[in-house]
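Quick note —
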Amino acid sequence: MQATETGDYVLGDIIVGIDNTADRIAEYTPCCDPKYGGGKLNDYAKFVASTVKPWVDAHYRTLKDRRHTAILGSSLGGIASVYIAQRYPQVFSMAGGMSSSFWWNESNMVRNAPRLLPVKFYIDAGTAMDGLDATEAFRKAMLKRGYRAGRDFYFYKDEGGIHNEQSWASRVHVPLRWFFGTRR
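Predicted structure written out below.
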């Protein structure tokens, strides 16, 4: 908590980062890509929603309700975050995927975009070898499902952005501001 010039107090945000394991490809993917395998995302989703989130709420002063809870990831973590919010909309009201691997499993997530849920989705991609075509296909699929650009769905194209942590760090403020707004 920090004091403002007027003496008001503003609650700080809590960001929880979950380290990946050697089994990350399987853990972050809903089903089996013909080339790379995968398919353990249901177990990982349950772990995040049923173990990590309750643990954080029990150990830190959080706003526990879904309205204040988002999930965000990059690359395979991006498709995992979108998928987890679909499975647990009672936990997450916002989900984002940065440079998400929508090509995974022959673009299955594009063909099966989330039905209209009370979840705000953010997706992005860079223009330099970052899966932009598959991300734009997912964007179109979401709009066909009834999501409204700028209202419950936000797409950001990062000119010159590539598929790496430096690009994600340079634009992570975009989904965070869209999810939580700007605060004093």
